Amino acid sequence: MKTSTLVILPIVFYVALYVAEVVFTTILPKHYIFDHVVLQNIVKESLNSLEIDASAAQVMDKVYEKLVAEYGKFIEQPEGPKEWVFNNAGGAMGSMTILHASLSEYLIFFGTAVGTEGHSGTHYADDYFIILYGEELAGLPNATTAERYLPGDVHHLPYGINKQYAMPSGSFALELAQGYIPSMLPFGFIQMITSTLDYKNFGRTVYFTAVQMIRNLYLGKV
Ligand SMILES: *[C@@H]1O[C@H](CO)[C@@H](O)[C@H](O)[C@H]1NC(C)=O
Questions:
Q1: Closest Cα partner for 176 from 17, 36, 57, 82?
Q2: What one-character-per-residue DSSP string does 118-131 give?
Q3: Is the Cβ atom of 144 under 6 angstroms away from ligand 1?
Q4: How far apart are CA 177 and CA 17, in angstroms?
Q5: For residue 160, which of 179, 185, 175 has the smallest C-alpha distance?
Q6: Ligand 1 atom, smallest distance to 144 CA
Q7: What is the full DSSP assignment across 4-32?
Q8: Which residue's CA is the closest to the ligand 1 atom numbered 10?
């Protein structure tokens, strides 16, 4: 490699990173339609309106109903969120159904009947994990005791921060991510390509994500 290339490449790299950072804090937020405080209130209202022994499925039905009332066409699906897929990422395995996916945001129900534990992943997006049922444990590398999140709580994982997390059997959450969503997709997909080889699940996940992103672009939602 020529010396000039060695000098220019890092400069290009740092300028690109700088631009990405500026766009992340100035332009991207203008395209956000979801608000984590509104979502947390929807979850809390849903929990308060249900019997104390309501099931995870009942909580999700109630939250979905309120989400449709609040966000209309950006959420609404003909038959509600019926399509669940496995998600293998960061060594954890769970199930999810996509409520909204666009280039700058996604909103999903994520959870696990069986229980799971793994790495949060390194994301160029802010993540808000609002517990619906059960609980989530999480910790930074230096933690000796786990952070614990219960129904109605929000676990905010700022972009670039990594944690280990666990959800015991039967736990479910409403997850909002805001940032460079396409940059998160490799984390969500790579274990299906290199490990589980669950090509049917892979196809369904790609399909539902693509349909959502294209549909929202059509609605003018970046
Ligand atoms: C662990 O690391 C975080 C961030 O690096 C820091 O804010 C926190 O104080 C640390 N906690 C302990 C117990 O050292």
A1: 36
A2: EE----SEEEEEEE
A3: no
A4: 20
A5: 179
A6: 13
A7: HHHHHHHHHHHHHHHHHHHHHHHTGGGG-
A8: 142
Q: Give the amino acid at 60.
A: M
Name the residue at shortest CA distance from atom 11 of ligand 1. 142
Could you tell me how many helices (H) and strands (E) the chain has, helices first?
5, 10
Stretch (H or E) spanning 164: strand 164-167
Q: How do strand 147-149 and strand 164-167 relate by DSSP bridges? A: unpaired
pTM, whole model, 2 decimals?
0.94
The pLDDT tens digits for 162-213 are: 999 999 999 999 999 999 999 999 999 999 999 999 999 999 999 999 999 9
Q: Give the distance (Å) from ligand 1 centre to CA of residue 12.
A: 33
Encoding tokens for residue 35? 């608000």
